UniProtKB/TrEMBL annotation:
A Pfam family hit: EAL
Domain named EAL: residues: 6-181
Protein name: EAL domain-containing protein
SUPFAM superfamilies for this protein: EAL domain-like
PANTHER family: CYCLIC DI-GMP PHOSPHODIESTERASE PDEF, SIGNALING PROTEIN YKOW
Biological source species: Robertmurraya mangrovi
InterPro entries per record: Cyclic-di-GMP_PDE-like, EAL_dom, EAL_sf
């Protein structure tokens, strides 16, 4: 499971490994079926600790990550570590979905799709077990971003709207283009 498949993936993993010593931490929030009360999935949540080891509200640091485009590197760290954790859970019998938030800024990174494919191959996880969540404020008029989402969908990932009701997107347009869950 630790074999790195290509030099590009190895370089990216080395770059994002530096984040290990950063204040970022991942939490996995259970998604519960109301009828059966069973865990049907987990949502990955990025958190950051301040120098007092207290959790900082994501609204206080994620916009800065997006503005500086650091979210591209941090997002790859999230994807790599989330998929690794999912692979470990699957070896123990977990069969649920894993939901990962993805930023519009991340979707502008041309290396994102190849990176995701290689991480899935490395950890032997199927794309159908992962759902990428977009905020409702996703700019539906941006054709290049929609192409990236279409590629994710064609690979087999599920796509979902996060924080529905808080933005101003055209839901009918997104529904016609995406598989909304």
């Amino acid at each position: 499971m630790e074999k790195v498949s290509t030099p590009r993936l190895k370089e990216t993993i080395e770059e994002i490994t530096n984040i290990k010593h950063s204040p970022y931490v991942l939490y996995f929030q259970p998604q519960i079926c109301l009828n059966s009360q069973e865990i049907i999935g987990l949502e990955v949540l990025l958190r950051k600790r301040n120098h007092y080891n207290q959790i900082i509200n994501p609204n206080e640091f994620i916009p800065e990550l997006e503005r500086t485009k650091e979210i591209i590197t941090v997002g790859k760290w999230i994807i790599q570590n989330s998929v690794l954790q999912l692979a470990k859970w699957q070896q123990s019998g977990y069969k649920g979905m894993l939901s990962i938030n993805i930023s519009v800024v991340q979707l502008t990174d041309e290396s994102l799709i190849p990176f995701i494919k290689e991480v899935l191959e490395l950890y032997q996880v199927q794309p159908s077990q992962i759902e990428f969540e977009l905020t409702e404020s996703f700019p539906v008029e941006n054709g290049q971003l929609l192409i990236m989402l279409d590629w994710l969908k064609q690979i087999g990932f599920r796509l979902a709207l996060d924080d529905f009701g808080t933005g101003f997107s055209s839901l009918s347009y997104l529904e016609s283009y995406l598989l909304i869950h």
